[in-house]
Amino acid sequence: CEIEIERIYIIRELPLQPETTKKPKKKKQSHSSLYTPQHPSPQPPTDKELTARKIQAWWRGTLVRRVLLKAALSAWIIQCWWRKTLARRLEKRRIQALRWMAQETRACVTIQSWFRMLKIHHQYWRLRCATHTIQVSWRWYNCHTRGFFWGSYEIIGNQLRLHLDIFLGSQVCRILDCIALPIKN
């Protein structure tokens, strides 16, 4: 299959401007416009030209679709990479937040346990002091209400004869003693 490509130039006539308007400044003509072939009259395109135009249009469309497909695939790859990166960052932040929360929870539990320990320790000492006070008071009351003393003494010469009976409930303690007294004449 051979394809002939010919250059086709379209020539347009410019409308004439009335002389009353200002003339625009002349622009320098480029070299390419000086050498453009000019056809005296436009002719309808031949079958070859139409076929060539169709093939060229198809090829340009294919190139554009190829470029667009490549751009779309590249964009899709970049989007996938970016989503993956964002997911990693989010996971790192989530794990960091979980660690921070666990550390805060452990700190709170430690502080609460210390506070409870001190509170219970304080209650224990208060109860111990109260128990000690009650025991001392009861022992003093028990000794003084249930027990009593009875005794007598005699002085015979230079000796003191002592007779004491101490009653503590059902127990009796007897003290019989003779103490020599130093008497000066």
TrEMBL record:
Pfam entry (one): IQ
SMART domains the UniProt entry points to: IQ
A GO MF label: calmodulin binding
Ranges for region Disordered: 19-48
Record-linked InterPro entries: IQ_motif_EF-hand-BS (IPR000048), IQCF (IPR039887)
Highest taxon in the source lineage: Eukaryota
Keywords: Repeat
Coiled coil: none
PANTHER family, sorted: IQ MOTIF CONTAINING F (PTHR21633), IQ MOTIF CONTAINING F4 (PTHR21633:SF10)
Name of the molecule in the record: IQ motif containing F4
Source organism (scientific name): Cricetulus griseus (Chinese hamster)
